[in-house]
Specification:
The protein is mainly α and about 170 residues long. The protein contains 7 helices and no strands. It has one domain (about 5-155). About 25% of the residues are buried.
């Protein structure tokens, strides 16, 4: 088994990138004045998230596998990154919700009541709270990380070259 230094490095880069993304969302008003756009624009996070996995697996292939990496090696590397990101998800979500944007939950609760998304304060508070978001962040990190790892490994793996006998 190869060292997992590369995976640890890129998992930490992913966590830092996630925190920076949330800070940018807050600065752009997506957690306050532009909550109506948050649902759509937050999905753009997929672009840097996928890019981090691509860069991580490319580095893994180059540094640890001397430019030759199978699909399973790439998948396994991506899954290690995913596991580390998921382990950090509760802390990451806590930092986001208590330090970066503590006003998000009150704002989104009020917005969901104003727009009729939720009919009661209790229903809104049951969805928009730190405990629920921590659960969602862990599950989301695992599900999206597995899917991203599986897809990115297809493109980063070393393709077998055709020989004269093929």
């Amino acid at each position: 088994m190869k060292s997992i230094k590369t995976e640890i490095k890129w998992a930490l880069i992913f966590v830092i990138m996630s925190l920076l993304w949330m800070w940018l969302e807050k600065l752009s008003g997506l957690h306050s004045t532009h909550l109506d756009m948050h649902l759509y624009l937050t999905n753009l996070f997929a672009i840097p998230a996928i890019l981090v996995y691509v860069l991580a697996l490319r580095e893994k292939k180059r540094k640890d596998y001397q430019g030759q990496m199978t699909y399973l090696q790439g998948l396994f590397s991506g899954l290690i990154i995913t596991a580390i990101v998921a382990l950090f998800s509760p802390l990451t979500q806590w930092i986001i919700s208590t330090i970066i944007t503590p006003e998000y939950f009150p704002n989104v609760i009020a917005y969901s009541l104003e727009t009729g998304y939720h009919e009661s304060l209790e229903a809104a508070e049951a969805q928009f709270n730190l405990q629920n978001y921590i659960k969602q962040s862990v599950i989301g990190a695992l599900v999206m990380g597995v899917i991203t790892s599986a897809v990115v490994a297809i493109f980063v793996r070393t393709k077998k070259s055709k020989t004269a006998t093929d």
